[in-house]
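Structure tokens please, single chain.
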Amino acid sequence: MTGSHGKTVLVTGAGRGIGKAIALAFAAEKNRVVITGRTATALEQVAAEMRATGTEVLASARDVTQKPQVQNLQHEIEKHFGAVQILVNNVGIAPAAGFLEMPDDLWDEVMRVNVKAAYHCCKSFLSAMVDARWGRVINIASTVARVTYPGISAYATSKHAILGLTRSLAMETARSGVTVNAVCPGYVNTELTRENARRLAEKRGQSMEEALASMAASCPQRRLIEPDEVAYVTLMLASERAGGITGQAIQVDGGAVMA
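Here you go.
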């Protein structure tokens, strides 16, 4: 379907949710898949699913916010599979807090996880793509890279930064055979969304079902997006035929943001 067969793919934050769906989608397309995250047991469960289909997979528990760990991961991948050809920067956190009440360490943590991780991975893996005259970088952002709402200033700022990084790298690599794009999901049916719904319900005195319903109601389709839908767009951007798409932010949000 995608034309990404036989490539070496790295997916960060692949132990659950969107990252897991993306990793499984690339595995189904017969690529060599590297998955990373901070929870080894979760990664091994995902790896076992992929190995059952005959996929070559490397599961490596790493904190990609730490440059030395990313460099060690790079050496490990090169030893097993060679250079990374498709990089999916998915790892992220999404805490909610009003700006004036937010502790400084929460702001720092969001920037560290959501921005610095993508920075370190691009620094480590982009050069080989440019040298090879082919590569794909897909940054999983959010609709709040385009718009924002009260109570999420740290998260929104981090995702705006990811979109800025996406566009800057797309310009710098435009003639190299490398494309750099962002996928911007709305509310996705994941554990992270349910965690946020629980917090919202507590704050509003609602049930979790009511909080999830209010999230779904923000989308014209009146539903949550499924992780596989985000994975599909990621596969498309990684394909050979998507070579003319770069510097773009593609919303997967049921029509919530049309700009």
